[in-house]
Design brief:
The chain is an all-beta fold. It is built from no helices and 13 strands. Helices cover 0% and strands 37% of the residues. The strands form 2 sheets. Strands 1, 2, 4, 7, 10, 11 and 13 form a 7-stranded antiparallel sheet that branches. Strands 6-8-3-12-5-9 form a 6-stranded antiparallel sheet, with no helix packed on it.
Length: 183
């Protein structure tokens, strides 16, 4: 039996009708101010999750680079997010099968929808618990990365997976982003 694979977007993808389009979310409008765009909190009891891939697409090309980071922030969770709902976590290899075991909530699995000038509450990182899993200085329209089979980063129970955006200019950018993981 194949592993269960899921995808979450930084938006309410679970309520989309056939003709609707998921709205984009904005990065910070302040230069060098990091905003968590999407956060995944593994189950408090299940085994770790393995990151299969991640990506994003901007609505328009950025005028200046945007730093996009995929981070295991240890036990430091962002808060003030919009909580995902179970229907917003997309099953990628069997739509009728069981749901993801990730924890849902405004400081758990969620996405940033606050106004561009207001960052999510990021928390204070510590060097001993934070792992940078991937990073890009982006000025193009889109990017998708898939980790090599058997080389996927694992996020253990109690830790937090985040996809963060840090614009290098004072202009908010609209984007879609997503993370694929295996449970």
């Amino acid at each position: 039996m194949p592993a269960k694979i899921f995808r979450a977007y930084n938006g309410a993808s679970g309520s989309l009708a056939a003709t609707s389009v998921m709205s984009t979310q904005s990065t910070s409008s302040s230069a060098n101010l990091t905003r968590t765009m999407l956060q995944i909190a593994p189950s408090s009891t299940a085994p770790s999750i393995r990151v299969i891939g991640w990506g994003y697409a901007f609505a328009a090309p950025p005028a200046a680079n945007v730093v996009m980071d995929l981070v295991d922030s240890g036990a430091i969770f962002a808060s003030s997010l919009t909580a995902h709902v179970a229907a917003g976590i997309q099953r990628m290899n069997g739509p009728a099968a069981e749901q993801s075991s990730v924890q849902l909530g405004t400081a758990l699995t969620g996405y940033c929808t606050t106004a561009a000038g207001t960052p999510s509450t990021e928390g204070t990182y510590t060097a001993s618990t934070t792992r940078l899993l991937d990073s890009r200085f982006e000025n193009g329209l889109s990017f998708y990365w898939r980790f090599e089979l058997g080389r996927e980063p694992e996020i253990p129970v109690g830790n937090c997976l985040r996809l963060r955006a840090t614009p290098t200019s004072a202009a908010a950018l609209a984007l879609h982003c997503w993370i694929d993981w295996e449970e």
